[in-house]
Amino acid sequence: MRNRTDLHPTGARRLVRSMVAMLALTTLVGCKPLDDAMASVFGRSMRDSRSFDPYEHPMPPAEGSVAFAAGNWPSADGEVNLGQPEGVAIPYFTQFDLGTPGVGGEVVQGLVNPTDPMSAESLERGEELYSRFCVVCHGPDGVGANAYIADKHPLLPAYNLSGAQVSAYSDQYIYAMIRVGRGLMPEYGGRITHFDRWHIVNYVRQLQVQAGTRSAEAPAPAPDADGGDQ
Ligand code: HEC
Fold it and tell me: Of 45, 74, 94, 167, which residue is least crowded by CB atoms under 10 Å?
């Protein structure tokens, strides 16, 4: 019995020969002329394609526009962040600086609350942001067990913001939690700006007063109330 190759000996040989010829041709002339020929037919070529760097915006910003977010802090509440205010050193910290969970200390030396913690405006803004970002896991009254996700994710909402433990934390610690997160809690630094973080801290303090774990006494006003945080 004859096999397939035996049936078409010349056909197989011809195929191999033409493949070798094509390979030789490609090696000799390279891809460029072929690409040019295709470009003349189709009007464009992959060679001229515009490439983007990672995270590069494919469209230039509109003329006269101002970048909305930057790594620096705005110099005052409600201001668009145009860069680092003069003389203000920006403390850098990560989750590792938070220290032992349950202690809630200073975190960053000299990080001062630039807002008026008792002002109605600040508390209103804090409430607005708390209900946007925190309420789902920490509950409307700060009691984790009352959080909306409590049934489905029993571990996530277990942290009580209006209890005695967080009442004893420093303002800086709560601020830092918002900025860098901790463990299962996501970081909100990229979504909540410097002043808004402080408004949330003020609001969390109010929840603690309402829960009876903190006295309503107004804390001493921040020494540097114009927003120039150190
Ligand atoms: C996705 C759910 C979720 C959201 C949203 C969330 N948290 Fe948390 N939060 C947690 C979890 C989980 C923990 C416990 C973190 C850990 O594992 O150590 C926590 C812990 C905390 C703690 C420390 C509590 C303690 O006893 O040490 C503070 C303060 C806090 N969150 C504040 C906030 C604030 C303010 C917001 C809104 C900006 C917020 N959280 C949004 C889940 C969340």
Answer: 94
